[in-house]
Amino acid sequence: MEVALFIHKIQGEPASEMIDQAGAMAPSLLRQHGRLALVFLVLLLGTATTSSALTLPKLPKLPNFRPGRWRYAHATFYGDETASETMGTYVRRNISHQNSRMVLHAVKLTAVDIPGGACGFGNLFSTGYGTATAALSTVLYLGGFSCGQCFQIRCAKSQYCYRGSPIATITATNLCPPNWALPSNNGGWCNPPRPHFDMSKPAFMKIAQWRAGIVPVMYRRVPCPRRGGIRFLLQGNGYWLLTFVMNVGGAGDVGSIWVKGSKTGWMKMSHNWGASYQAFSRLGGQSLSFKVVSYSTKQTIFAYNVAPANWWTGKTYQARVNFK
């Protein structure tokens, strides 16, 4: 009878109050009805607390990337109408890296085929970026974390602007380095703290007459419309994985990345340069999964089993997921 009264009393009560009341009644139930009543009470509380846990509010989902506000900058162009100068080729380089498996942490030189450009995107035709690209000045490049970001650019307040101020949408694929030998307002266009876009000539010709050389522009960040999943170009060897991350949607950028072999846990990769990340671990002969966090939105994507156990260096593997 006492158990029945207890059940009737707590109907509709919050789980925390049920637990408090049950704790007060437990000694009495044990004396009068033995262990069976106490077991029943424990099972009842377990059901109540489980139900309460299931109704807890979910964590808010981070929003998809949205266009930013318009800002002022300047734009130039490099190369010709073919944009061949923007096409980074794969170059055989000796990359220094620290082998964490060695006691003395010796610095080694490893010869690998590195895609050109300060972002490491290589040939922009084959990697899907085309000619709608630009090199960013230092303040926009952000040490490589802006690689892959998308911008809308339009000519502003210049006699060389096309009528109607058409917009060119470009991807950040390179760095426009400072030129300290020239003043910032006369040749040193990419010197800090100037925001500047050195566009491919085809992209520049969408917003202004090429003979202008340099024009004032307005620009803003926009979401990157990418087809398919995130792509991972794998370099290095079985003990040192160097990964170039491309075709990133949404904000277009990468803030951090983790790798997981089929025989390992998740390991955070260190930022090497541009859009490349590295991990010092024996990952050869294992299928690879990646966890990617956006630099701008902090959104996280898990890309499982992107590369098979017999993955090759120099090959690009595409995930089935991407940011929006």
Automatic annotation (TrEMBL):
The keyword 4Fe-4S does not apply. Residues 116-229 form the Expansin-like EG45 domain. Keywords: Cell wall, Cell wall biogenesis/degradation, Membrane, Secreted, Signal, Transmembrane, Transmembrane helix. Residues 239-319 form the Expansin-like CBD domain. It comes from the Eukaryota. GO terms for biological process: plant-type cell wall organization. It holds the Pfam family DPBB_1. It is found in: Secreted, Cell wall; Membrane. Its main location: secreted. The chain crosses the membrane at residues 36-56. Causes loosening and extension of plant cell walls by disrupting non-covalent bonding between cellulose microfibrils and matrix glucans. No enzymatic activity has been found. Belongs to the expansin family. Expansin A subfamily. This is Expansin. It comes from Zingiber officinale.
